[in-house]
Amino acid sequence: MITAQAGDKVKVHYQGTLADGTIFDSSEGRDPLEFTLGTGQVIPGFDAAVIGLSPGQSVVTTIQPDDAYGPANPEMIIEVERDRFPEDMELEEGLELQLSGGGQAFMVRVIAIAPEKVTLDGNHPLAGEALMYADLPLALRLEQAAAMVAQWSVTTHSRLYPPSAAASIPCGSGTAAFVDETSPLTQIKGAGMIAPTLEADLDEVEAFYEERMAPVTFVLSPFADAAIFTYLSRRGYEIGAFENTLFRPLSAADITDPDPDITQPSAPGAWAAPLAEAFFDVVTPAALELCGTLYHLPHTESFLVEHDGQALAGAQLCCHEGLALLQCDGTIRRYRRAGLQAKLIRERLSRAARSGCNLATADTEPGSASQRNYEKQGFRLAYTKVTLIKP
């Protein structure tokens, strides 16, 4: 197998985020970055992350400041009298200026403005920052996993409930899943990621759902083929929701002792009932059926946080081909804000690392408490998906 080595010219798709999840650079919508390894054309940590990769392979890495743009140097921050600037010059924080001195020109940023002084920073804007990089192959890996779980939900539901009309068909590179007309599992996942989705594909998918009197719901990554967004817009699809896909690398450092408060119920109902209450506040037959399907998904473990024999919260971990999917997080309303989700995240990260996974992912509602809980455990934003629904 060919692997990238020093001296090789490579092309790389990537996305870079800061510790707070802010995307500072991305090749999305552009040609891949082309450079020669080991020649100093990119920061050292980026070079090191690419060396050893094969074509089509992805990596998630955190580059510390020493291997990126160096630590921030306080001596590079200076105050300048306001009257040194032209009177008609509009100063604002973040403005970049070119200064000269000692026969050299250098760039600075305005970081503070006072009536008599302006503070300038000559450090690189990313100095002192730890940088996390992801790329298009990462998005493909995550979206293929989402399509896989969609397919599993159909086959699992069909096996558990034989009268069920659950079915699925391909949608380009994705899966169009139908469990029942009201199920949250009835969605199209992973479309447009490998090959373009054609209008003929959409005709088939719409007919598939229309025959079953179910809504047509696409969940799309921003890395999906642009044509699918154009086609769906022309067909009158509307935005239903947004969903953040988070990720983080895993290593042996994530392995911890088992949490004594967390159990793995052997009976489906022991997990399904509290999770149904956590998701819907009331336990209905439909909710129990949904949670029963989730409990039996392949390669999936179900967890509960218990106290004095009472189930308080639950979640799942699906490990497949080195990827850990943290899913189905739910806490019964009266037990929320007690750190239970954080316990479940840590336990699942430990289990995933112990099983050999090198990457973890989770989907959350943007800006939610759930997203903040994941971020506190080292997760960062990979991208935001959009749900498009045909009215």
Report on this model:
It is a single chain. By secondary structure, the protein is of the alpha+beta class. It has eight helices and 21 strands. Strands 11-12-13-14-21-15-20-19-18-17-16 form an eleven-stranded mixed beta sheet, with helices on both faces. The chain has a four-stranded antiparallel beta sheet with strand order 3-2-10-5. The chain has a four-stranded antiparallel beta sheet with strand order 6-9-8-7, with no helix packed on it. A hairpin with a 2-residue loop joins strand 11 and strand 12. The chain is globular, with a radius of gyration of 25 Å.
Set out the fold topology.
Elements: E1 9-12, E2 15-17, E3 23-26, E4 33-36, H1 44-50, E5 61-63, E6 77-81, E7 96-101, E8 104-113, E9 117-121, E10 131-134, H2 136-160, E11 167-171, E12 174-178, E13 188-189, H3 199-211, E14 217-220, H4 226-234, E15 238-249, E16 262-263, H5 268-280, H6 285-295, E17 300-307, E18 310-320, E19 323-331, H7 340-354, E20 359-364, H8 369-376, E21 380-389
Parallel strand pairs: 13-14, 19-20
Antiparallel strand pairs: 1-4, 2-3, 2-10, 5-10, 6-9, 7-8, 8-9, 11-12, 12-13, 14-21, 15-20, 15-21, 16-17, 17-18, 18-19
Helix pairs in contact: 5-6
